[in-house]
Design a protein that fits this description.
- This protein has eleven helices and twelve strands.
- Helix 7 (223-232) packs parallel to helix 8 and helix 10 (315-334) crosses helix 11.
- With 362 residues, it is α/β, with parallel strands linked by helices.
- Helices cover 42% and strands 18% of the residues.
- It has two domains: 1-99 and 272-362, Isopropylmalate Dehydrogenase (3-Layer(aba) Sandwich), CATH 3.40.718; 104-262, Isopropylmalate Dehydrogenase, CATH 3.40.718.
- The chain is globular, with a radius of gyration of 20 Å.
- The strands form two sheets. It has a ten-stranded mixed sheet, sandwiched between helices.
- The structure holds adenosine-5'-triphosphate.
Length: 362
């Protein structure tokens, strides 16, 4: 029996409403398993916490996160609670920097029955992963760019160290997907190497990693063409890896393909830590009304189980992660327990209960 410590950030707005049923599902799964046990520790943080205490991310919570095997984080931030300088409170970004979570993993999946603005040809579904570098790139000077009367400058920084780690991660992910039958084993480097020297450098490091992985296919695409192809033939992608700002933009395009943010999970992964959280924000407009869609949070928890299982060689945990993801997929395809954002009438509790019931039945 393996024991895992999970740090839990309940978040703001709808955050706690979608975290609570997600933890219930995880507890039930772990209880049924004889190969792993999950221990949850609350890590207070966020905008409401800042409003109460003047501290958005207490040192004790940071410590809990650092020591945990994985971090589960719900949506954070509130539009009217800000730091004195007017900037938003986003402990999730502080965690990303403090723990060097360089790989932002954004799965983009559209399966049978899932609403999408695209008309998919028969037999085609969308199932790729976008990996966004999350610690440097054009976000390097975030908050410290130079602005004068006549001009403004930000710096794009690409380092060999982070790029090597990023590409190794991308190729490993493509191999894992291939072995699981989820993809053909292909990694696409998305850049602008035809215009910027920094991206030619990025691509060169990618090619070095590609040469170390002859069992996988590697190719390149310019970011502008990638935006076009994500709309025209998204079923062609497997794993794509890109710089921070490009990834920021393309991941919202990916969420758009998925019919919105309600089904978009994510992970921010480093060498020693990983945060799993839904892509959406804290949706204060619907907080406290039982309208929040819990599926992106539940799918993020599924990613956590798979990641922990792979990392610790725990096949049962990987299988549970997949089972949880497939259960949500089936409920979405059936269309019977959807929340309002997906065109249904289910409450947060009813949608989450449908997942719990399906798992109980299996
Ligand atoms: P952030 O900047 O923190 O990402 P945001 O202002 O872009 O946040 P969200 O908080 O994600 O936006 O909300 C955008 C819209 O999507 C809102 O109308 C919100 O109600 C809706 N929304 C977001 N998440 C959910 C969810 N889980 N269930 C239902 N509706 C949601």
């Amino acid at each position: 029996m393996q024991d895992y410590q999970i740090a839990v950030f309940h978040g703001d707005g709808i955050g706690p409403e979608i975290m609570a049923p997600t933890l219930d599902i995880l507890r039930a799964m772990a209880q049924r398993s004889d190969s792993y046990h999950l221990a949850f520790t609350d890590a207070p943080a966020g905008a409401a916490h800042y409003a109460r205490t003047g501290d958005a991310l207490p040192a004790a919570s940071m410590d809990t996160a650092r020591r945990a095997d994985a971090i589960l984080l719900s949506a954070m931030g509130l539009p009217d609670v800000r730091y004195a300088d007017g900037t938003e409170i986003s402990p999730q970004i502080d965690l990303r920097k403090a723990l060097t979570l360089f790989a932002g993993v954004r799965p983009v999946t559209v399966r049978a029955g899932q609403p999408t603005p695209l008309k998919l040809p028969a037999g085609k579904d969308i199932n790729f992963v976008l990996i966004r570098e999350s610690t440097e790139g054009l976000f390097f000077t975030q908050g410290t760019g130079e602005v004068t009367e006549t001009e403004a400058r930000e710096t794009l920084r690409i380092t060999r160290d982070i790029s090597e780690k990023l590409f190794r991660f991308a190729f490993d992910m493509a191999r894992t997907r291939k072995e699981a039958g989820d993809g053909p084993g292909r990694v696409t480097c998305v850049d602008k190497a035809n215009v910027f020297r920094a991206f030619a450098f990025f691509r060169e490091i990618f090619d070095e990693e590609a040469a170390r992985n002859p069992d996988l296919t590697a190719d390149h695409a310019y970011v502008d063409a990638t935006a076009l192809w994500m709309v025209q033939k998204p079923w062609n992608f497997d794993v794509m890896v890109t710089e921070n700002m490009f990834g920021d933009i393309l991941s919202d395009l990916g969420a758009g393909l998925m019919g919105g943010l309600g089904l978009a999970p994510s992970a921010d992964i480093g060498l020693d830590n990983a945060v799993f959280q839904p892509c959406h924000g804290s949706a204060p407009d619907i907080a406290g009304q039982g309208l929040a869609n819990p599926f992106a949070m539940i799918l993020s928890a599924a990613m956590m189980l798979e990641w922990l299982g792979l990392r610790h060689d725990n096949a049962a945990m990987v299988a549970d992660g997949r089972r949880l993801r497939e259960t949500v997929d089936r409920i979405v395809a059936a269309g019977t327990h959807l929340t309002r954002d997906l065109g249904g009438t289910a409450t947060t509790a009813e949608a989450a209960q449908a997942v719990q019931d399906a798992l109980d039945r299996a």
